């Protein structure tokens, strides 16, 4: 327990100051998000396409189109994203039809590659949209800290007090007690940082937003855990000591981004 805590804090102490500095810059944040998306794509396809002979082709297609996807978001042309998604589908369809004489499994391969393309750059792109809000860097801070608090609270409270499994078929170690602990810490963290950073949001919206994030964030974790369980893999990678791969660290963030963007856009005026 103490060893795990030490490893997690070592990684956090290295990553967080760098992250906070990068968030302030518009171009630097775009670069950070793009690099994170490319790393996560590799980790995801290593899980979803590990037994497929066109792993490298699938990865290259996604690597070419992902920067274009994120650049369109960054420059304010989200209406063209459907073209990038369609292009990805068409290229992958062409590759599998040419490469595979046996048509068995073609649909599964294209579906997995397309899912990865939508799942990673599609969801991580919401970080760019949140960053473009007024006081966008503050919203990014609060977003990251809420998800971090939810994950940390869920892990340690679940370790200490967890007795009732939350979703044993997918992640046997996750407990209802850990889920509630993560939710509680997520709300407290949102209140603390929103007030500290003078974020223009009412107390009611702080509680409402953080409650929804505290509920949805664990679903992102469980979604990735389901893929790892099917592939009999513990971690998506070993990039971050004490945390596994980068996708292991931001899976909850991927699900939280669209929700925070939608909440801020449609409910907070």
Question: What can you see in these coordinates?
Answer:
The protein has one domain (2-266). Helix content is 77%, strand content 3%. It has nine helices and two strands, in the order ααααααββααα. It has a two-stranded antiparallel sheet with strand order 1-2. β1 (165-167) and β2 (171-175) form a beta hairpin. The radius of gyration is 19 Å and the shape is globular. Belongs to the CDS family. This is Phosphatidate cytidylyltransferase. The chain crosses the membrane at residues 12-42, 54-74, 80-98, 110-133, 139-157, 178-197, 203-223.
Briefly say what this structure is.
With 269 residues, the protein is mainly alpha-helical. It has helices at 2-23, 26-48, 55-74, 81-99, 106-131, 136-161, 176-196, 203-230, 246-266, and strands spanning 165-167, 171-175.
């Amino acid at each position: 327990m103490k060893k795990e805590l030490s490893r997690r804090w070592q990684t956090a102490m290295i990553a967080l100051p760098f992250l906070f500095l990068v968030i302030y810059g518009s171009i630097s944040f775009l670069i950070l998000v793009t690099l994170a998306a490319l790393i996560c794509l590799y980790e995801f396809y290593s899980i979803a396409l590990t037994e497929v002979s066109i792993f490298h082709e699938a990865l290259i297609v996604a690597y070419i189109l992902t920067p274009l996807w994120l650049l369109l978001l960054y420059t304010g042309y989200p209406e063209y994203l459907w073209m990038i998604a369609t292009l990805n589908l068409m290229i992958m369809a062409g590759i599998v039809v040419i490469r595979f004489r046996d048509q068995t499994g073609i649909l599964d391969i294209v579906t997995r590659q397309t899912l990865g393309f939508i799942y990673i750059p599609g969801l991580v792109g919401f970080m760019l949209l949140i960053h473009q809000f007024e006081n966008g860097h503050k919203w990014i801070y609060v977003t990251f800290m809420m998800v971090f608090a939810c994950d940390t609270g869920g892990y340690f409270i679940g370790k200490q007090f967890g007795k009732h499994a939350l979703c044993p078929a997918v992640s046997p170690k996750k407990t209802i007690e850990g889920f509630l602990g993560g939710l509680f810490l997520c709300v407290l963290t949102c209140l603390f940082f929103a007030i500290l950073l003078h974020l223009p949001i009412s107390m009611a919206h702080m509680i409402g937003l953080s409650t929804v994030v505290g509920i949805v964030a664990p679903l992102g974790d469980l979604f990735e855990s389901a893929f790892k369980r099917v592939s009999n893999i513990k971690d998506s990678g070993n990039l971050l000591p004490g945390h596994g791969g980068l996708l292991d660290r931001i899976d909850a963030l991927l699900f939280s981004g669209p929700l925070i963007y939608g909440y801020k856009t449609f409910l907070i005026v």
